[in-house]
Design goal:
The strands form seven sheets. Strands 1-2-3-7-8-9-10-11-12 form a nine-stranded mixed beta barrel, surrounded by five helices. The protein is α/β, with parallel strands linked by helices. It has 13 helices and 33 strands.
């Protein structure tokens, strides 16, 4: 029998165990895979019920356990829809086309596959002439549920949040999951943590990985780790979207090979439940990929400690309409790679929340400003034996008006908060200069952590914005604290990190990704040098890292003793295994990697 080729589309993994998102037993990590694009009504050449049944059989045989169906398209002031909808039949702006959903649902459900209806074609961002209201969208939700949809996908939820909150809630009342496609850049919006819990799944687009290059369509995939951290707090399943037929920052020539590496990393970091892959039907092997992932998931250490990233910024319900979002949220967002990678390279998992949760270490991102009062439960952390970092989205309070909570926090970091501090505001505008305009007022970009040179202050590389700003702590305000990270004495003011007894003040409002190294080193005396441009996760039993550029990897693996036997496997960006060896580990482990090489290191029992 000849092999049938169908239209390539979107792949999606969905799991329903929202309450156990990070507590899944490794041996039961078995996400469901869904595929879109294999059947678009009127365009796929699928005409009869027998054709549909053959297609569903082929999808199932390739390892997919669900299918995504294109539900509607925009056409000027009208929309075309491809399913049975008594409500839309009565609307002058809606045009009924072929109902392919009914037969598709029946064939899929008979086979044991689930069906998701993709409504992104009529989302309010792309369909400027849309007719949606919070009232009429409820009828669309009812009709989709009646048509047999197990889930509904769309994007640009934030543009008209009142409409899609109504949509999400109505779908939920009908037992249908609502999933919104989310660019990581939305994490810089003050309404993210307010609105996204309304969705059934926290769904993050996996855009490009090049940390230091401008790619205008979207933002760094690494920053998306903050979104997955929020999902853990909310108890929500998670989803990843990435294409194989479009360039989202990974060249098409090798995106098919790199994608499984990304899936492995996200599985080890977060046990991601959902993967959406554009163009995956004949370019991605869910069965083989899942078996490979489970090999390492089962080996990964089960006792990883947890870092709780506590966000004390003001939340909103409205969309800013700005591609840079709210100032403090944008600074946190652009610190996301450093904070999350720093924790994961130190052997920690992460959770992001708006209040203190039980954890083994904490990162407090405060609003800052002279009038800020820290919550008592945050202040209490500074009297524990757990590592605590505190960073601010604006100026760190100091002087005679400082609140008691901030004064206590600074004292525990070895700083006298009663003294006045100065604040280098930065320009937050495109800049190509390597030093601040005023070295008396501002922080420079670079500095040293224990004689290791690195970039410290943050920037929004994707928007060409300099986010270099922070609080300058005078030398005589540092009482018994240790300066761990500071600028070169020739340039600017400092320091960047001051601490005492595992309590650390971070003075810059936004952090470069290279600050992951001091974070991980302070947490566990381990980590990856800032000269090593890799991304992933490190651990005593399993380490998985993707080379973002050609780079020399130099890593001290957290919790792993010198002399331990390790198995090291490296694949290239075309999916070829380059090397495999077993050797005795002696820190640091060093290896030269080429762009998009993927290295897996596991301790041999």
């Amino acid at each position: 029998m000849s092999k049938k080729i169908y239209l390539l589309g979107i792949v999606l993994l969905i799991s329903s165990n929202a309450s156990e998102i990070f507590a899944q037993d490794a041996k039961h990590y078995n996400p469901l895979y869904w595929v879109q694009g294999v059947y678009n009504p009127g365009r796929s050449g699928i005409r009869t019920d027998a054709d549909v049944a053959d297609l569903v059989d082929d999808i199932y045989a390739k390892g997919w356990r669900g299918v995504l169906y294109w539900g509607a398209s925009r056409a000027g002031s009208e929309m075309d829809y491809y399913y049975k909808s008594p409500f839309l039949e009565q609307q002058t702006w809606a045009v009924e086309k072929e109902d392919g959903l009914s037969s598709f649902v029946k064939a899929s459900h008979d086979k044991g596959l689930k069906v998701m209806v993709n409504m992104e074609g009529v989302n309010p961002w792309h369909w400027k002439q849309n007719q949606w209201t919070p009232e009429n969208i409820k009828y669309v939700a009812d009709d989709l549920a009646a048509a047999g949809a197990d889930a509904v996908f769309e994007e640009c939820f934030e543009v008209n949040s009142a409409v899609f909150v109504s949509f999400a809630r109505q779908l939920k009342s009908n037992g249908v999951d609502y999933i919104s496609g989310t660019d990581p850049m939305l994490l810089r919006e003050a309404n993210f943590s307010t609105l996204w819990p309304e969705t059934a799944v926290i769904n993050i687009y996996n855009y490009y990985l090049k940390r230091d290059k401008i790619f205008n369509i979207a933002t760094l995939a690494q920053h998306g780790s903050l979104g997955y951290g929020w999902a853990k707090y909310w108890g929500k399943p998670t989803s990843l979207i990435t294409p194989l037929g479009r360039n989202w920052g990974i060249a098409l020539d090798y995106s098919s090979a790199v994608l499984p590496y990304i899936c492995m990393i996200r599985a080890l970091q977060f046990r991601v439940d959902n993967y959406i892959v554009f163009g995956g039907m004949d370019k991605f092997d869910p069965i083989g990929t899942q078996a490979w992932i489970n090999e390492y998931v089962e080996k990964q250490e089960a006792d990883r400690p947890l870092m709780n990233i506590v966000v004390l910024l003001q939340k909103e319900t409205d969309y800013s309409g700005s591609e840079t979002g709210s100032d403090s949220w944008n600074r946190l967002f652009n610190s996301g790679d450093a904070i999350t990678s720093g924790a994961m390279n130190a052997g920690y998992n992460i959770m992001v929340s708006d209040k203190v949760m039980p954890a083994d270490a904490y990162w407090i991102y405060a609003a800052g400003g002279s009038n800020e009062i820290l919550p008592p439960e945050v202040v209490a952390l500074f009297n524990t034996d757990k590592p605590v970092f505190i960073q601010s989205g604006s100026s760190i309070p100091g002087g005679s008006q400082i609140s008691p909570g901030w004064k206590t926090a600074l004292e525990e970091c070895g700083i006298d908060g009663s003294q006045a501090f100065s604040y280098g505001r930065g320009s937050e505008s495109p800049s190509e200069v390597s030093l601040p305009q005023s070295q008396e007022q501002d922080l420079p970009y670079t500095g040293y952590y224990k004689e290791t040179y690195l970039r410290v202050t943050g920037s929004d590389v994707q928007r060409g914005m300099d986010l270099r700003s922070g609080t300058i702590i005078p030398k005589d305000a540092i009482t018994d604290g240790t300066v761990y990270c500071s600028p070169n004495k020739t340039y600017g003011k400092g320091p960047y990190i001051v601490g005492k007894n595992d309590k650390y003040l971070v003075t810059a409002t936004a952090l470069n990704w290279e600050v992951a190294y001091p974070i991980s080193h302070l947490l566990s005396d381990a980590g990856i040098l800032p000269s090593s441009n890799v991304w992933g996760i490190a651990g005593r039993k399993v380490t998985a890292l993707l080379a973002i550029e050609t780079t020399e990897l130099e890593i001290t693996i957290p919790g792993l003793d010198d002399g331990s036997m390790i198995r090291v496997v490296i694949w290239d960006k075309e999916g070829n295994k380059k090397s495999e060896e077993t050797l005795a580990y002696n820190a640091p482990y060093i290896n030269m990697l080429k762009e998009y090489d993927f290295i897996l290191i596991n301790a041999e029992e």
